[in-house]
Design goal:
This protein is mainly α. Helices cover 83% and strands 0% of the residues. Helix 2 (22-62) packs antiparallel against helix 3 (67-87).
């Protein structure tokens, strides 16, 4: 088990190094940056969702008719979350 892990670490040590050229290392760095941004955006959307549900329930109780607008916002938020989860995979 440790031998496989050591071989993997050794093989990955050269990925993105100067031996492969700066284009590859820049491409790998850009991919990591895009992946990080997608993870943060998905997590922010996930954190906002309960707040939006609370606002939707509060608006439903008040009878202001904003409930359907919040329902649309929740659908849009779910689509954003899905796009960052699936699109950045």
């Amino acid at each position: 088990m440790d031998q496989n892990r050591d071989e993997l670490v050794r093989s990955l040590r050269h990925v993105g190094s100067a031996a492969h050229g700066p284009q590859i290392s820049l491409a790998l760095r850009a991919g990591l940056a895009v992946g990080g941004v997608c993870l943060v955006a998905k997590d922010v959307a996930q954190a906002v969702q309960p707040l939006m549900i609370r606002s939707a329930v509060d608006s439903f109780r008040g009878g202001s008719g904003m409930f359907f607008r919040y329902a649309g916002f929740l659908v849009a938020l779910a689509l954003v979350k899905a796009s960052f989860s699936i699109g950045c995979a």
